[in-house]
Design a protein that fits this description.
By secondary structure, the chain is mostly helical. The chain has helices at about 1-90, 95-165, 175-185, 190, 195-200, 235-275, 285-325, 340-360, 370-380, 390-400, 405-415. It folds into two domains: about 20-325, Substrate Binding Domain Of Dnak, Chain:A, Domain 2 (Up-down Bundle); about 345-415, no CATH class. Helices cover about 75% and strands about 0% of the residues. α2 (about 95-165) packs antiparallel against α3 and α6 (about 235-275) runs antiparallel to α7 (about 285-325). It comes from Knipowitschia caucasica. This is F-BAR domain-containing protein.
Length: about 425
Amino acid sequence: MLQSWEVLVAQTESLSQLMKRRSEDLQEGPINKLTLLIRDKQQLRKNYSEQWSAQRQELIRVTQTALETLKNSYRQAVRNAAQAKRKYQEVIKEREQEKAKERYVKASVKLYDLHNEYVLSVRAAQVYHQQHHRHIQPALLQALQSLQQEMLLILKEILQEYFDISTLLHHEVVHVHREMSTALTAIDPHCEYDSFIQQNRSVGEDPACVDFDLSILDENGRLFTAEIDLNDLTLENIQHKLTALEEELMDLARTLGSKQSTVEQLEQELCSEREGVTKGQRVYQFSKSQALEQSRQQVVLSQGLRAKLEVQRLLLKEKLEQLGSEDPPPALELSSSSTSNDKNQSAFKVDGFISNLSGLFKTKSETPVGQTSQLVEECDHGASAASANAAEANAATCVRMRGGGGVLDQLEVSEESA
């Protein structure tokens, strides 16, 4: 009896030690990994929510907010130009007519610039709208599906590890473990999320995008719907805009190349790590899988931005290629004065205004120092050799070449000399 009791006590102690070891194995293995997986799941949900909100806000900004602001400015510019034109046509006195003409030209320049900017923004919004619904959002869902499948596979491995550890606890749980084994075998990450995108995608056709608002042109019949207006007032602005777009596209191409390199590097690292991975270790690679999907999302977003900028560049480039080497058409039809002297003086002042206006968009480096000095010297010594009207023109040109003031100050110099 005493010997049997000692055996029972010893076996009970052995069973207790066995259960304690298995409990520690469960705590250090599956339970810790499951805690880490839950934290990754929460982070994934947060990242998805932030990315979805950011993409939605960008879509609203490009297709609604920015366009609405630009459209209001455009509509006001149309009214201002129409009002300036009416005042110019109604003015009788020559001095008042010059001031009205100046306001009319300035209002027209602003109108043409806003018109071209609105055309570019509308077209860019249309392209980005398509990119958002056909590429950016599907890519986000694809990334989420891939990560969900990865997490489900990790969960399966954790549960399998739990099953393997707990199987040795008791022979009485064989039936329970058989049921658990059947349930584990039934888990298939790919089948589980097979219809994920189909269930979560937008229903029906893509929502309607923005279009050119025809009501803006009610007071101005010279501008054409959704078409860049290239004339003597907008030529330099369009050229500068095209150059800026090309530089921005080059920077974006470099950024996109860097992001694609990051994606390729992460793909290679994950591929190498997964070749020798053992069961239960995949959970430690999930953060890198999530970083890979985020990098892919950045590539898709950059491609959408590139498509938006590229369509603007093509619109401007096509317009400039249509013009070729010819002079741009005049933007405004200005009436001439009654006498020939008034015609010459009026034409000179308008040409001087346009030249000065063009000078505002040029950097100082575009005019060589030697050429500027020569022109200034000709202006200083030209009064004795030219007629009175030519002397007045040289004086106005000297003011412009020396950069002595703004456009309005230069016009006042021309008027006082007249």
